[in-house]
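TL;DR need structure tokens for one chain.
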Amino acid sequence: MGMMSLSSVIVLVMMVLLVQVSSTQYKVGNLDSWGIPTDAKVYTKWPKSHSFKIGDSLLFLYPPSEDSMIQVTASNFKSCNTKDPILYMNDGNSLFNLTQNGTFYFTSGQPGHCQKYQKLIVSVGPYSADADALSPSSSSADADAPSYQNAFGSIPLSQKSSSSSLQFSTIVASLACAVVVGALM
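>> reply
TL;DR here they are.
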């Protein structure tokens, strides 16, 4: 009986870990590439349809000879000032890992692209109000607040977006739980 309760505890711990380690890679805008949008609100609408969490990542795809992605402060985002970015990526296959709660501001590093609404606000955790405040048609006193710095990851192996990697990790974790429980019984 003692062994049965130990295996139950192990299964519970494995399930908790599964929930905490599962993450999603989002292809920014669900578009073929990060670029000047034909609809000025595309990058404003897209993050509202997702619930980003720590561990998720944003994949910016673009021709490296034609574009780039930069992370900027809130006030630089609002004014489309690309002179002093927090982070600059130009490899065409840029992966930005969300490693903490906060609001993150991105735009193209190419001159004039930000003014044509190639810019994105992503909120992780309880910071969604900031994202609405800086949409292309509004203003906010919070625009001068600094955005949170973040580390970025390596070039991804797959260009698929969203849930296929999550489903795979769920299957692998479930099989691991079954093996551990089977070994204990």
